[in-house]
Amino acid sequence: MTDTATISPTKAWVMAARPQTLPAAAAPVIVGTGLAVHDGVFAALPALAALVGALLIQIGTNFANDYYDAIKGADTDERQGFTRVTQSGLIAPEEVKRAMYLTFAIAIISGTYLVSVGGLPIVVIGLASVASGIAYTGGPYPLGYHGLGEVFVFIFFGIVAVTGTYYVQAVDAVAGIPMTIPSGTLPLAALVASLAPAALSTAILVVNNVRDIETDAKTGKRTLAVRLGYRWSRVEYLLMLAVAYAVPAVFALDPAYSQFALLPLLSLPIAVRVARTVLTRTDGAALNPALEQTGQLLAIHSILFALGFAAPAVL
Q1: What are the domain boundaries of the chain?
Q2: Would you say residue 42 has pLDDT above 60?
Q3: How many CA atoms lie within 13 A of 287 on its CB side?
């Protein structure tokens, strides 16, 4: 834990935003954009707007987690994770709550441009993403408290983010404001590609929850790791890694793509190193760095995946 007496208000807000989690927001946008370049539908403004929206939703979700975990008693002094600003008293609970709503409001406002491009499907995606970000630890049935956190992350920080990013670029050339998804703007390839960042984003959460198994169990937070225990949570982590590296191989075998799709395999040594830690350690001293390293793995894997898609189109 950090010595809170030496932390400035500015640093406290940075801690609350959790910049180490932002690769989970940026990675699927990067992958979706790489595929858009490959397919010749790249559009810079929609791609940038998708990135801004994803980052804002991630930060808003972080504020929500900090606030709700504290008021529900899930965060205690025994917790081995990074310092939570609400529980530690660095920022008043009501301030964190206001920041959460403000961040989500800015995300919705900034998303109006994407709505003008993508129409009703983007309205549905945007509102569902915000609602789920709050419901992850808030509301009458917190997803993270009932073993559904991984499902939320896999869907919204993987499938929805990648396909949504691709869609807003592909639909940019379509006249009018779509009420449904126009033909050709959401190919199967976007869904398949989304599985890689979805898996690695989920792997980040697995590390977080494995680290907190003991304290979460004491406070009644029934995460999937609490339900599965150490052994099967580690199996889940390995499964997520397997999915992340199988997806590029699927594209490399498709004649429509190239061997550049295998570029993410260059990150495999990082995955092996982090997996060794996750498979053998339970303490925060080891798993906090492993959590950050899994986030770095997600970022590197996604950049390489996007380059693998884009390379044949730009070389």
Answers
A1: 4-314
A2: yes
A3: 25
Mean pLDDT of all residues in 174-188: 93
Report d(CA 133, CA 52) in Å as an integer. 16
Neighbours of 40 (CB within 10 A): 8
Query: What does the alpha-carbon distance between residue 145 and residue 136 come to, in Å, rounded to a whole number?
Result: 8
Category of 312 on φ-ψ map: left (φ > 0), alpha (ψ -120 to 50) or beta: alpha
φ, ψ of residue 91 in degrees (nearest 5) = -135, 140
Instruction: Indicate whether this model's pTM tops 0.90.
Output: yes
Question: Is the CB of residue 23 less than 8 Å from the CB of residue 296?
Answer: yes
| Record: fold of 4-314 | Farnesyl Diphosphate Synthase (1.10.600)
Residue 29 tokens, joined: 């946008």
Residue 76 has pLDDT above 70, yes or no: no
Reading the block at residue 216, the tokens are 């979460």
With tokens 């929206």, the residue in question is 53
